[in-house]
Design goal:
By secondary structure, the protein is α/β, with parallel strands linked by helices. It contains 8 helices and 9 strands. The protein binds adenine (ADE).
Length: about 250
């Protein structure tokens, strides 16, 4: 997977993407991350890339031409028209399935806006996907691009070791992850659930499944609709709900 990031702050991308699992994947040749500085494509001697919006209004807009030239430099380099993701609160909200789908591409371009946005005409010409990372407004597209690259990278074969593999994590199977514990057996008076010390793998799996169901039912009930849940498990969830309701009525 080759990520190309069109940005006014290349150092933010370079520094944000060179540690931990992503840094290791880059060193191992599974990923490349190239930050393309839009300012290098400014067509005036002051390297100015923004201007006032026609019709008035607050703030400055990024101009079309430097963004287009930065994009074109990537297109020329890779010899094809890649998918171009524009990070914007107006886009579709990012989720795990989108990460899985984007991970199938060979090249992805992220376009990071700043100021009050980017001249609409260049967006119409180059952007294939408008994506938001949530219903809040950030100062620029770099953090959302890094969030997306992180989650897409995890889906690229070879990036995670077998042990780190995403299989049992939150959102695979559509449920939240079960709680985990490491040594010591008791910490601040809190004990590790005894079943985890039993060595009985079927019981451990059953306990973990139940914890995942319980957490999802409690904190993200919206996810239950699309998760794989048996009739027996639905009965369990209904039972818990009755108990939780009785508890809140008591308080
Ligand atoms: N740019 C500013 N806010 C954003 C958000 N929530 N998602 C994606 N891009 C953004």
């Amino acid at each position: 997977m080759n990520f190309h990031v069109l940005t006014l702050f290349p150092e933010m991308i370079e520094q944000g993407m060179n540690t931990s699992i992503i840094g290791r994947a880059i060193a191992g040749g599974y990923l490349t991350v190239q930050a393309v500085n839009i300012r290098d494509f400014a067509f005036n001697k002051h390297q100015k890339v923004d201007d006032y919006p026609y019709g008035g209004g607050a703030g400055m807009l990024m101009q079309a031409e430097p963004v287009y030239l930065a994009y074109e430099s990537v297109e020329k380099k890779i010899g094809k028209k890649p998918r171009v993701i524009y990070l914007t609160p107006q886009g579709r909200v990012f989720h795990q399935e989108m990460a899985r789908e984007f991970a199938r591409e060979e090249d992805l371009v992220f376009l990071c806006g700043h100021y009050e946005g980017i001249d609409e005409r260049v967006l119409e010409e180059i952007v294939t996907d408008y994506v938001s990372i949530g219903d809040y407004v950030l100062t620029g597209g770099e953090l959302p691009a890094m969030v997306m690259m992180d989650s897409i990278s995890r889906m690229v074969p070879g990036v995670l070791s077998n042990q780190e593999s995403g299989e049992t994590e939150s959102f695979s199977g559509g449920l939240l992850e079960y709680p985990q514990y490491s040594r010591p057996e008791e910490w601040h008076g809190r004990k590790v659930p005894p079943v985890l010390l039993s060595g009985h793998h079927a019981n451990i799996d059953a306990w973990r499944r139940e914890q995942s169901l319980m957490r999802t039912a409690k904190y993200r009930p919206d996810l239950l609709k699309t998760a794989d849940i048996t009739n027996k498990e639905w009965n369990l969830i209904r039972q818990w709900r009755k108990e939780w309701k009785a508890e809140t009525n008591k308080e």
